[in-house]
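seq as requested:
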Amino acid sequence: MRIKDISKLNNRLLEKNKWKTNKQIDNSAYEQFDLAVDYHKEDNLKEAFKLYEKSAEQGLPEAQYNLALMYYRGDGVEKNINEAIKWFKKSAQQRYSTAEYYLWIIYYNGEDIEKDINEAIKWLKRAAEHDLEDAQYDLGTMYNRGEGVEQNKEKAFKWFKKSAEKDIAPAQYNLAMMYQYGEGTEIDENKAFYWNKKAAEQGIEQAQFNLGYLYQNGIGTEINSKEALNWYKKSAEQGFIPSNKDLYHHNTI
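struct tokens:
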């Protein structure tokens, strides 16, 4: 699960709006937003907050998201989870996927509110359907575990694949495992090797260990003892200690 790994989402906070495509929103909202970004980059959080708020009130989803995030963190304003939820929802109602994803995080973790798994899953599904790769991985994980939804390996496979194709390493590893053991799809050793290697190259220690196993046993590739040793070593250098389950049936993460 990547629900606490939100650094990529936060990168959008300081991006100016380059595409003024909504004709129903006055140009001043975009100008206020861009000026707010400038203030934010200068760490003038109070001025940034004021301008985000003005832009958000005119309906700009990016501004609504940034305003929500400031309330969520307590940047330039006193932290207020209810105000954060209010503005995340306004942004999410305009299909802003990162806002939808934050609502998933808040309701799943029960951050200063009561945990609500049904509400969390609702927003997670929306973010995944709106093509956010982190959400697609998390939704795959929920279907794989049967947490908050009925367990469904086929749906888990579907969402892991979408996320893996956007270069999310844990999704690549889980997809490899599903191909390797025929969970949610037919066994395909070549695809198992391909996706496992992708994940291993991004530093997933379980994938590095399993890649060594694939090279050692010629699964999806030619036997290569040198490469097997290389990847076992990389995994060990990260402190990965395989359990008996890892030795005989490699689990998803």
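The two ends are 7 Å apart (CA to CA).
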